Amino acid sequence: MRRKGIALLSSLVLFTSIVLSACSSSKELSKIRLGEVTRSIFYAPEYVALNQGFFKDEGLEVELQTIPGGDKTMTALLSNSIDVALVGAETSIYVSQQGSDDPVINFHQLTQTDGTFLVSRKPVDSFDWKMLKGSNFLGQRKGGMPQMAGEFALKKNGIDPQKDLTMIQNIDFANIASAFSSGTGDYVQLFEPQASIMEKEGKGHVIASFGKESGLLPYTVFMTKQSFMNKNNSIVQKFSNAIQRAQNWVDTNSVQDIAKSIASFFPNTDQAIIESVVKRYKEQGTYAMDGIIDEAEWNNLLSVMDSAGELKSKVEWGKIVNNSYAEKAKSGK
């Protein structure tokens, strides 16, 4: 009798192990290697999707890595070191202009304005763009979206970047803020949180937004190669679904809650600074409410690139933009 009981118990344990193993395998997550061009509060919805569990809810395990520089991020995507890139849409246009049998496709927009601000060394009571004439201007990397949007804004306000001021562009992106703090330039074009930190330390003053001046455009976009999209259609859709949920969450939650959600990605940044940055970006409509890249935004991007002399040929909106994933994610179907 005792032997029968032991045998029954052993069978029950074995059965339970099989069931648990089956359940575990059925819930196995699909892995996605995601490369972001920089670590920035500018990308808040991406971090919300990770920390709020939206990717996991979609059955995805996202491995995030930061790859400084649009050229390096695109190289990683083209060489299959990553599956999806979060980078400026202009990089996909550069690849298209070079010709490719496996084009890079933009499938979900994250930010819809430039994220940089004009910072002056001295306080300015009543700012006028003409104040920049004759100044030393510490800009961004030539050919990059921040610099192109910056030049577009300057020209819009009657400033010729090549003739009306001295443009300084020989400093690496990571060192621009420290260079300004050390005395280089009268004005500087900065991303957040560097702009807010500069203000807090009394070393600079935010006087204008390049995002407001350059208008709506697909500034930062999730993109992947056509071959990956063809082989992993459902995974790309799940990815888009998770980001849309994060965009909805950012839209409906408070600045404080958003800052708390993304704080783990910025362990060395003061919580008050994170809140200040999120507030600034929310107020100027930087975070896109959905991933759809419309034709007007795309054409504005082309105008910005053309104005900077970086557009060799016009790349039509429908050629390297696929809105079907973002549209389905937005509809919730």
From TrEMBL:
Domain of life: Bacteria
Record Gene3D superfamilies: Periplasmic binding protein-like II
Residues annotated as signal peptide: 1-22
Keyword Signal (UniProt): yes
Location (main, coarse): periplasm
Entry keywords, A to Z: Signal
GO cellular component: periplasmic space
A Pfam family annotated for this UniProt entry: NMT1_2
Compartments in which it is found: Periplasm
Family: Belongs to the bacterial solute-binding protein SsuA/TauA family.
Name this polypeptide is given: ABC transporter substrate-binding protein
Organism name: Paenibacillus albiflavus
Source organism phylogeny: Bacteria, Bacillati, Bacillota, Bacilli, Bacillales
